[in-house]
Structure formats: structure tokens, C-alpha cells
Write a structure and sequence with these properties.
By secondary structure, the chain is α+β, with helices and mostly antiparallel strands. 34% of the residues lie in helices and 26% in strands. A hairpin with a 2-residue loop joins strand 3 and strand 4 (96-107).
């Protein structure tokens, strides 16, 4: 900003104009906040029955992302156990830290399904032995795959259940982008505590759009005052040049 601009902006009429624009911007900001409050108050709650088990095929296909509304649903699936199993570290059960045993189960379409079998303070994977390799009905909660970037791979520790990682460890052609937490653990493991998902809320995006418009108007009110001052300075400079000429 030039000295001439600041000198012009400090004139009483422009200070009064700034105060008026600030009041106007405040009104626009208040209207925007009101629109946001309306969007939240009028949000539509998406109720999904997550506790009645449904076939996994009605919720998720192998390789597809798990929809937000279906995360945490209880599902049923018939799968065949493989001998591939891993121990996942740093898994909390209440106030205790321990480990999960996860295993690979093949569904009828040949896709890998990671299954969290149970929790223990320290897991010995050899304690889980598949005696019957015939297809078994499994019931549990379908949980979105963990983000592999949050894992401790750099230190050689498996701390997440990530399908992007397991697809290579288990040499799967296709894999579910989620894992199943069994309703009942196989002894001597404890059943993993799974949380019932909260209902999802769908915001009224028309109100959000109006709120953005009011925010734009608030910014424009201040910019309008700035342009008026700038134009006045430019006119005085042009007049001064004309007089010199």
C-alpha cells in the first residue's frame, strides 16, 4: 500500500464507509452461520440396520471399496479356511493392549477375506489349527480395511489389517477391501470387542451452498470498500498529473 492510499483511507468519510462495510460483512457472516446451523439441524439421519446379519455379497464385492453406510454391518459368509495366518500387534481391547490373530479365508468366488479371529495379550498362531477345511459359515462385523500408511512397516512390525498389504502376503488374486471380525472367537482367544457404528447424517447441501454465498458476499463488501478507496486515490493522482501538464 502506498502512502497516498493510507492517507485517503484515514479520511473520515472512508472510515465511515469502512465501518458500514464491516457491519454489512457481519450481517452476511451471521446469515452464513444461520444457513450452516439450518443444514445441521435439518440433516437427514441415514438409519441402517447394522445388527441383523446379511450375506456379505449384498454389502460388498471383492476389490470394491466398502460404502460408508455399510461399515460395521454384521454379515454372514461361507468360506474355507487356509493355513495362512498372521499376528497383528498393538491392538487395544478395552484398557489392555494385545494382539490379534487374523487368518485368510477363501469365499465361494475364490476371493481372500481377512478374518480377525480373536484377541489375546500374546497370540501364538500355532494354537489356531484348521481341522476341517470344508466351507464354514462365518458371522461377524465387516470393518473397513486399515490405512497401510498408519502401519509400522519400517520397523518390521505388523500393526494394521490392510488388504493392500495382505494381498501380497497371501498371494491373492482378489481380496475384500475390508476384514471380518468374528462374533465369537475360537478358544483360547477372546472375542474382539467391536463397536456398533453410529447412524450417518446427510447434510442439506443447498444450505451449505447458501452459506458459502453469504461468506463470499461478506468478503466482497470489504473488497468493495478497498476498491472505492483505490479508485479515489487513482483519480486524485490523475488530477494531479493533469494540473502539472
Amino acid at each position: 500500500m502506498t502512502r497516498a492510499w493510507w492517507a485517503m483511507a484515514r479520511q473520515p468519510r472512508w472510515i465511515a464507509g469502512l465501518l458500514a462495510c464491516l457491519v454489512l460483512a457481519g450481517v452476511f457472516a451471521a446469515l452464513g452461520q444461520w444457513q450452516i446451523e439450518r443444514a445441521i439441524a435439518e440433516a437427514t439421519i441415514v438409519e441402517v440396520d447394522t445388527e441383523t446379519p446379511v450375506p456379505i455379497t449384498t454389502v460388498l464385492d471383492p476389490g470394491a471399496g466398502l460404502p460408508l453406510t455399510d461399515g460395521g454391518r454384521r454379515v454372514t459368509v461361507t468360506a474355507t479356511w487356509t493355513q495362512e495366518r498372521l499376528v497383528v500387534l498393538d491392538r487395544r481391547q478395552g484398557s489392555d493392549m494385545g494382539e490379534w490373530l487374523i487368518a485368510n479365508a477363501l469365499t465361494a468366488d475364490g476371493a481372500c477375506l481377512p478374518v480377525a479371529i480373536g484377541w489375546a495379550p500374546s497370540v501364538n498362531p500355532d494354537e489356531f489349527i484348521v481341522i476341517d477345511d470344508s466351507p464354514s459359515p462365518l458371522v461377524g462385523r465387516l470393518v473397513p480395511s486399515d490405512d497401510p500408511s498408519t502401519g509400522d512397516y519400517d520397523n518390521g512390525r505388523l500393526t494394521v489389517v490392510s488388504s493392500a498389504d495382505l494381498v501380497n502376503r497371501w498371494d491373492c488374486e482378489t481380496i475384500y477391501d475390508a476384514f471380518l471380525v468374528l462374533d465369537t472367537a475360537q478358544p483360547p482367544l477372546e472375542t474382539i470387542v467391536s463397536v456398533t457404528p453410529l447412524p450417518q447424517a446427510a447434510l442439506n447441501w443447498l444450505n451449505i451452498f447458501y452459506a458459502i454465498e453469504w461468506a463470499f458476499f461478506a468478503v466482497f463488501a470489504l473488497y468493495f470498500w478497498y476498491r472505492l478507496v483505490t479508485d479515489a486515490v487513482e483519480r486524485e493522482a490523475e488530477a494531479a498529473v493533469g494540473l502539472q501538464a
